[in-house]
From TrEMBL:
<comment type="subunit">
    <text>Homodimer.</text>
</comment>
<feature type="binding site">
    <location>
        <begin position="184"/>
        <end position="187"/>
    </location>
    <ligand>
        <name>ATP</name>
    </ligand>
</feature>
<feature type="binding site">
    <location>
        <begin position="147"/>
        <end position="150"/>
    </location>
    <ligand>
        <name>ATP</name>
    </ligand>
</feature>
<keyword id="KW-0566">Pantothenate biosynthesis</keyword>
<keyword id="KW-0067">ATP-binding</keyword>
<comment type="pathway">
    <text>Cofactor biosynthesis; (R)-pantothenate biosynthesis; (R)-pantothenate from (R)-pantoate and beta-alanine: step 1/1.</text>
</comment>
<dbReference type="GO" id="GO:0004592">
    <property type="term" value="F:pantoate-beta-alanine ligase activity"/>
</dbReference>
<dbReference type="Pfam" id="PF02569">
    <property type="entry name" value="Pantoate_ligase"/>
</dbReference>
<comment type="similarity">
    <text>Belongs to the pantothenate synthetase family.</text>
</comment>
<protein>
    <recommendedName>
        <fullName>Pantothenate synthetase</fullName>
        <ecNumber>6.3.2.1</ecNumber>
    </recommendedName>
</protein>
<dbReference type="InterPro" id="IPR003721">
    <property type="entry name" value="Pantoate_ligase"/>
</dbReference>
<feature type="binding site">
    <location>
        <position position="61"/>
    </location>
    <ligand>
        <name>(R)-pantoate</name>
    </ligand>
</feature>
<comment type="function">
    <text>Catalyzes the condensation of pantoate with beta-alanine in an ATP-dependent reaction via a pantoyl-adenylate intermediate.</text>
</comment>
<keyword id="KW-0963">Cytoplasm</keyword>
<dbReference type="InterPro" id="IPR042176">
    <property type="entry name" value="Pantoate_ligase_C"/>
</dbReference>
<feature type="binding site">
    <location>
        <position position="61"/>
    </location>
    <ligand>
        <name>beta-alanine</name>
    </ligand>
</feature>
<feature type="binding site">
    <location>
        <position position="153"/>
    </location>
    <ligand>
        <name>(R)-pantoate</name>
    </ligand>
</feature>
């Protein structure tokens, strides 16, 4: 496995892979890797693929007062995990390589970015769209892999690719969870022992709401119960919403694919999760 911090070296390696007839698969990450990221690498390892993982803590997707300065950075262990998982190339650009002096461009994706986390974290998805567009241009992948845990982010990236004609297939990979159901996240390391025990209330509340809605309970009642359950467990709830799984618009009819999305805080740690609503219990 090769590690690159300069774009010229990365592009030379990608050109060599192309010369061998290998299609490039990209797994963008912000590091602090866990089993969820490794699932993305494993999904990307199709026969003949050249798997590229990027590690970049993107300052443009963090708002004022968010956790940019303390976001976990584990470069050496990340590289070891990627090597063991069978990654071929790692792109580790410094901030000045991604945003050199005079950088003045930002990409805003409308529609799917505007509610939920788009409302709770203004500017967040502009930062996501901008850095992902740069990564696509730098790496030129045939496919790119993203976790479905970040459901709204995945929708934003699909819209970005469709609207700007990027020649890349976006592949969503199912959410990876701990044994008790908590979605894996780099931010889980912020939770102390007591908070970690409480955190499982998030997937459980979503599961209960999903079953209730599928069984005929009015969505507003099921969502209110989920919010109350989370509040009682010690969460400060940003949102729990039922949306159309494609457009992310609220109040979807029952014959559409529907998704429950939630964001809530335990202390200073913000957790997100989502769950599909089955047409039957």
């Amino acid at each position: 496995m090769e590690v690159f911090r300069e774009l010229a070296g990365l592009r030379a390696a990608l050109a060599a892979a192309a010369g061998e007839g290998r299609e490039v698969a990209l797994v963008p990450t912000m590091g602090a890797l866990h089993a969820g990221h490794i699932a993305l690498i494993e999904a990307a390892r199709r026969p003949g693929a050249c798997v590229v993982a990027s590690i970049f803590v993107n300052p443009r997707q963090f708002g004022a007062g968010e956790d940019l300065s303390r976001y976990p950075r584990k470069e050496l262990s990340d590289i070891a995990m990627l090597n063991e998982a069978g990654c071929d190339l790692v792109w580790l650009p410094p901030v000045e390589a991604m945003y050199p002096a005079g950088f003045a461009t930002s990409i805003a994706v409308g529609g799917v970015s505007e509610g939920l986390d788009g409302a709770a974290r203004p500017g967040h998805f502009d930062g996501v769209a901008t850095v992902v567009a740069k990564l696509f241009n730098q790496v030129q992948p045939a496919r790119a892999y993203f976790g479905e845990k970040d459901f709204q982010q995945l929708a934003v990236i699909r819209r970005l690719v469709a609207d700007l004609d990027f020649a890349v297939e976006i592949v969503g990979v199912p959410t990876q969870r701990d044994d008790d159901g908590l979605a894996l996240s780099s931010r889980n390391v912020y939770l102390d022992e007591e908070q970690r025990a409480k955190a499982v209330a998030l997937p459980r509340a979503l599961g209960q709401a999903a079953r209730a809605i599928a069984g005929g309970t009015a969505p507003d009642a099921a969502l209110a119960e989920a919010r109350a359950t989370l509040t009682a467990a010690g969460f400060d709830v940003d949102y729990v919403e039922l949306v159309d799984a494609g457009s992310l618009l609220p109040d979807p009819p029952a014959d559409r694919r529907r998704q429950l999305l939630a964001a809530a805080r335990l202390g200073s740690t913000r957790l997100i999760d989502n769950l599909a609503v089955s047409p039957t219990i």
